[in-house]
Amino acid sequence: MIMDIAFKCPACNQELEVDGSAAGSTIDCPSCSNPVTVPAPETEEENAPASAPPPAPPPAEEKHFSVPVREHASDEVLIKKTNRPLEVAAKESDKTLRIKSFKRSDCQEVGRDRFDEIVSMFLEKVGQTNIVNVSPINYSYLDLSTRTLLTDYGVMVVYRG
User: Fold this and answer.
1) Are the beta carbons of 100 and 107 closer than 8 angstroms?
2) Mean pLDDT score of the chain, rounded to an integer?
3) pLDDT value of position 136
4) pLDDT of residue 158
5) Pick from 81, 109, 124: which residue ends a domain?
6) Residues 93 and 148 in one domain
7) Which of these, 28, 39, 64, 86, has the minimum number of CB atoms within 10 Å of its CB?
8) What is the rounded distance in angstroms from the CA atom of residue 8 to the CA atom of residue 135?
9) Where are the alpha helices (DSSP H) in 6-50?
10) Which domain holds residue 33?
């Protein structure tokens, strides 16, 4: 049975724990990004005599992890909160106005234009009572293969949810 390997980064002293199968490989420390070679797991079974009873498990070890410190403070959000599903948002009483845009070029598959289908599914999901406005939009984009500026259309849906 391969056990996890716990060790410290020699550069920043961050406590790390990896799967035992990673022994001998090199990883980047998540705290300081320096390359760290994963040490071989320490096994007591190999050093014990064959007739000796198995050793008692060691007491639980308290682990103290240090928080990585960045040199420059950033406004970067590390954990992003997902949007609530439309069904949940529609049931709440304090509905806020939301906007969803659909571009026709994003709804095309090989040989098939799914724009109407995708917009219709979204409108059904939101529900007619929650739709405030559906407005057509025009936009331009650069076609990378031909290097030409193309004009296309879409819709912007304003809804409560």
Assistant:
1) no
2) 80
3) 94
4) 92
5) 81
6) yes
7) 64
8) 57
9) none
10) 1-81
As a whole number of angstroms, the distance between CA 116 and CA 141 comes to 20
Which token pair is 13? 């002293």
- For residue 116, the number of C-alpha atoms closer than 13 Å in the C-beta half-sphere is 2
Domain boundary among 66, 81, 96: 81
The DSSP element (H or E) to which 142 belongs, if any, is strand 131-143
- Same domain, residue pair 27 and 98: no
**Main-chain dihedrals φ then ψ at residue 125, nearest 5 degrees:** -65, -40
One-letter amino acid identity for 62?
A: E
Best CA proximity match to 8, nearest among 20, 21, 70, 31:
31
Tokens of 160: 């409560």
Same domain, 99 and 132: yes
Q: From its phi and psi, is residue 26 left (phi > 0), alpha (psi between -120 and 50) or beta? A: beta
Q: How many C-beta atoms lie closer than 10 Å to residue 128's C-beta?
A: 7
**pLDDT tens-digit series, residues 4-59:** 888 899 888 888 888 888 888 888 888 888 898 988 877 655 545 556 677 777 77
